[in-house]
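Example (one chain per record):
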Amino acid sequence: MILTTSRPDLTLRQLTPVDAAMLYDLIHSNHTHLTAHGDYSAQVASSIEAIAAELSTGDQSTRFGIFHDAALIGRVDLVAVELPRYCLGYWLSASHTGQGFATAAVQAAIEYAFNQSAAKDIFAGVTHGNDRSVALLRRLGFDAIKQFETYTRFHLAKQ
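Predicted structure:
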């Protein structure tokens, strides 16, 4: 499955086990960036086989690769928590931040969730200090609903 975004050079494609090595390389080349504002230590420690296993689960979650001009630059996940509720997760490679890629990718994933997956609510958690992620969620209409010790939970309801 391929989703278009508001940018002609940016698409989302559902990741499969075949993409595990490419995703592994992207995670490891961005390990410092990924662990700066969130707990991606489990992903960084994952083997190619573990990533392939994660991408092959048959649950109702959807894991998208973010592709800029056909190159994998990040990931957006819609994790089925308690249907019709989903949890949103996303990240970009360090070299692709600050260019609007994450906003366009997350917007496309949200539209997919509400229009194709029958989502009614989407939640996201943002580690304190990750101001760019907070700004992205606010741009897309999310509201902060609860503060925890290390992160803030955001919510977006289907209109």
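Caption: The mean pLDDT is 92.
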